[in-house]
Amino acid sequence: MGHGTLLRKGKVKEVYALDDERVLFRFTDQISVFDKIIPTLIPDKGETLCRTSIYWFKVAQDRGIRTHFIEQKSKNEFIGRRVQIIPKPGNTDKNYLIPLEFIVRYYVAGSLMDRIKSGEISYKSLGFASPNISYGTPLPEPFFEITTKFEAHDRSVGISEAMEISGLDKREIEEIKENFLKIDAFINAKARSGGLIHVDGKKEFAMDENREIMVVDTFGTADEDRFWDATAYEQGNFIELSKEFVRQYYRKTGYYEKLMNARAAHMAEPDIPGLPEDIVQEVRRIYIEMYQKLTGEKF
Question: What is the rounded (10 degree) CA torsion for 50, 191, 242, 43?
Fold first, then answer.
């Protein structure tokens, strides 16, 4: 195959070193939820994610934002710049992956709703005047948050801890936020024109060889970001057009509750069951449809 040396095998992506300066990203048809790899493949999923990612890299580059993307290799592979993984980066290190994940939310959904309910996040800090917030409410302003990347379970961190973990200064974090919102302005508009609402998304960044910020990994796909059907939303319904559809399936079957109970009790976690054929076909259809709606290109 000529993939090079396997550097990292993630839940859905494999990264191979081609040489000192380049890596190959390979997207599989695996799908994962709740940190579990589902024992069922989704046909064509890898290709849709790879091609969507490449589309957004080109959009970012056209807008003067650095990315690690070099070129497409095959329908489910692309070549990118290689960066180091430094356990504790300092503020002079170069060419390294920033060991944090950055998230921007535009609507109240997912874990944000849980954290508002539990009082972990106050409605005032999000810009709301009243605590009566319902699921799907647009946020008064985009909510930018930072989480850990290399810990067992991701957790939210404040600016000062983020700086300590990453070797970034305040100005660099501000620049990451600016780049994130600049890319999202385009994703949000493109989603709208495709009949979608871009609810939230995460991105990863690295420092290049000149210690300039560049966006890496993948973003704007049905795996990294959350999208809703815009027409259904106007009618008060939330049709999940992303991996969230699969998460909801496991919530309905009761698996999610069993898993969370086992985790809370520090007991052995139940194996995740495979997906039935009708769900597999629906998930495949969602990934293809999302590729077409986001890029405007035929699959």
Answer: -40
